[in-house]
Amino acid sequence: MGRMSRRVFALAALSTLVTAPGAVAADTGGPAREVAGAGRAPRTTAEMRGVWIATVGNRDWPSRPGRTAAEQRKELIAHLDRAVRHRLNTVILQVRPTADALWPSPYEPWSEYLTGTQGRNPGWDPLGTAVTEAHARGLRLHAWFNPYRIANHTDPGRLAAAHPARRHPTWAVPYGGRLYYNPGLPEVRAFVQRAMLDAVARYPLDAVHFDDYFYPYPVAGQTFDDDDAYDRHGGAFPSRAAWRRDNIDTLVREMAAGIRRVRPGTRFGISPFGVWRNATTDARGSDTRAGVETYDDLYADTRTWVREHWIDYLAPQLYWHIGNAGADYAELVAWWARVAKGTKTQLYIGEALYRAGAAGQPSAWRDPVELSRHLTLAAGYPQVRGHVFFAAKDVAADRIGAMARVAADHYRGPAEPPR
Fold this sequence. Notes:
Layout: E1 48-53, H1 69-85, E2 90-96, H2 112-115, H3 126-136, E3 140-145, E4 149-151, H4 164-167, E5 172-175, E6 178-181, H5 186-202, E7 207-210, H6 227-233, H7 240-262, E8 267-270, H8 294-298, H9 302-307, E9 313-314, H10 329-340, E10 346-351, H11 370-378, E11 384-389, H12 392-397, H13 402-410
Parallel strand pairs: 1-2, 1-11, 2-3, 3-7, 7-8, 8-9, 9-10, 10-11
Antiparallel strand pairs: 4-6, 5-6
């Protein structure tokens, strides 16, 4: 996911912390009862307790490219064992970070983040090993795919010789210093689904997981060049924006159907940027002033995906502190709970563990209790079925003990993930 440190938002940070809300009438979608204090027993026997393991740029794992297969396996096992020690129950492993693969894919090259050279066989099967070892520890394994990102540069010549983007150069669009597959081409959509479903067919994955990248985040002064695709395929739509949203909606619906067809019982979840739309843009939106809105900027209608139950779960990245002026964690938990209320889509909350104790963060993130307060607040919303923490390296470092505090306050015993 990258993640929020690379985003530019029109947000003003506040250091003020607010307490968990009190009782609110159930028909508002707010808390159904007074929130208990930290240290309470878990309110349910089933909740998501997840951690992302990012491989793009060797963010979390492997620690660097080129380590031996044995060293990489040892590092992976350490992340799994650490998740167990913190009484987590799910790992979300990034297995297709840049149109490549952490398994022996017939469609795309081996990831450069394993060996340092895209296409070079690492001598082992990371995804197959991760599934086996996670399940042996009682952990669920969600395979995390990025559908459209090709590279964190714009030079096709740096890709493996047999890379699909080199064989089909018209599929690729350079934008913002990166290279992307064009979501507006039906042949691209069909290809990326085949590539991802190959992993679903090979391994007993508990879920398929997408992150927040659909159309790329906007870059000032640059245009995503999909004119030809729009001319060919966009005629039935009132605007380019509507056509782009339909492209992403179609990917989501088709991928969900493909997963059900290839491996019934494997779930499908998405972790989008946390703001669908600001209320100043759309009365149905959240009381926020975020500089990015997924509906308008990434062409991802995340609210509809939940309301229509196109996916099994949504884990919005609510990477702000309680009381943030532009995007208050408390406001967004309440908003997403209202969206999920009455639907069959499960709601988990993406948590910014990486901010806790990090340099340059607002004062709220220097408090080791901030993250625990998030879980206390969210416990008042029955629609919230758990949390996912970004990311594994930060669980290991736990700079100010924020993750240890979460485990002590909220994860005193084990819990099964929701089904």
